[in-house]
């Protein structure tokens, strides 16, 4: 949680404002892989539960709207029953249940999905066969039932990018990334300090230089340093000794699983990017290294972005989604091998 105090305070403020009946934008936390989005979401779960909210938490997936609708129905149904047992439902509670039934029955026109309870469907609510409209009706109904019970319902969804578009006016988009300055130092030193071990200034500087403040890398380097250090103060030499094991672990797990998913052409594209350096690279420059036209490589670049291996910090540029991936590519693929151009209709990968 080091470096995330601002976001934790913002979430706590969000819950407080909503509990007082005031409006406030909800949050979508964004950031590259490995910076701690899911860890932060789990912290939000604990905060909401401690505040007495009913919490709905699940992970979105690359499936159609019907799958999301089914998952949301199951979660909202469970939340409604936690708010009040069925035998004690008021008019608002029963109305919410009827809206949920309509929401579930809108999954397909044949109504083949079983809602697993004998609650009739509401008419004119959550039955539009439009996910945005239906979900709005369902959340409003659940919200009114929760308000009557003097509780709140918090929805915390991981991998929300797999869902369809959300209105910008409804959400704030705080972004988290690598840790800077004091936050990086705290992430390195405080776990060791809790065990009675300190880092020398030189050791901290070396660790920041090696990890670039990337949260997962700090965690991995800290583990490897702990394995080799002998004294109650970790030195810069300890960090340097641990570096080889640290890089080997990243190469065989964190980095390798990403490369193993790539086709030969995708691998060549990333290797060409690595040859140009760690900075974001123009598509035309990568194409030049590969002796291809940038339009030929456009689909490959788009595939790598969709796979989460690249992202676009600026128009026309692409960068690796994790630090030091360029160095890994140079180690893992010593020579740039460019697949032959295939004729239309053949597999170009």
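^ structure tokens above, recovered residues below v
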């Amino acid at each position: 949680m080091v470096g995330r105090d601002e976001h934790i305070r913002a979430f706590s403020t969000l819950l407080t404002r909503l509990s007082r009946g005031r409006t406030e934008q909800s949050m979508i936390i964004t950031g590259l892989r490995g910076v701690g989005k899911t860890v932060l979401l789990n912290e939000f779960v604990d905060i909401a539960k401690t505040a007495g909210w009913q919490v709905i938490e699940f992970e979105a997936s690359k499936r159609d709207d019907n799958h999301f609708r089914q998952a949301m129905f199951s979660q909202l149904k469970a939340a409604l029953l936690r708010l009040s047992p069925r035998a004690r439902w008021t008019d608002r509670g029963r109305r919410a249940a009827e809206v949920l039934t309509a929401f579930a029955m809108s999954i397909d026109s044949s109504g083949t999905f079983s809602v697993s309870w004998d609650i009739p469907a509401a008419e004119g609510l959550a039955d539009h066969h439009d996910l945005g409209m239906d979900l709005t009706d369902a959340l409003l109904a659940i919200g009114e039932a929760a308000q009557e019970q003097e509780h709140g319902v918090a929805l915390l969804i991981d991998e929300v990018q797999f869902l369809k578009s959300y209105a910008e006016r409804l959400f704030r988009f705080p972004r988290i990334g690598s840790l800077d300055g004091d936050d990086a130092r705290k992430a390195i030193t405080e776990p060791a300090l809790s065990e009675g071990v300190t880092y020398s200034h030189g050791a901290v500087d070396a660790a920041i230089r090696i990890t670039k403040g990337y949260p997962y890398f700090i965690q991995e380097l800290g583990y490897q340093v702990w394995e080799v250090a002998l004294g109650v103060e970790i030195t810069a030499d300890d960090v340097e000794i641990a570096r080889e094991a640290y890089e080997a672990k990243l190469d065989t797990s964190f980095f390798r699983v990403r490369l193993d998913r790539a086709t030969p052409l995708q691998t060549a594209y990333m290797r060409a990017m690595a040859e140009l350096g760690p900075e974001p690279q123009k598509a035309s420059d990568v194409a030049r290294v590969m002796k291809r036209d940038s339009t030929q490589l456009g689909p490959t670049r788009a595939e790598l972005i969709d796979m989460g291996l690249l992202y676009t910090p600026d128009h026309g540029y692409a960068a690796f989604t994790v630090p030091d991936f360029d160095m890994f590519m140079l180690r893992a693929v010593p020579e740039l091998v460019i697949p032959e151009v295939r004729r239309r209709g053949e597999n170009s990968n």
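The mean pLDDT is 88.
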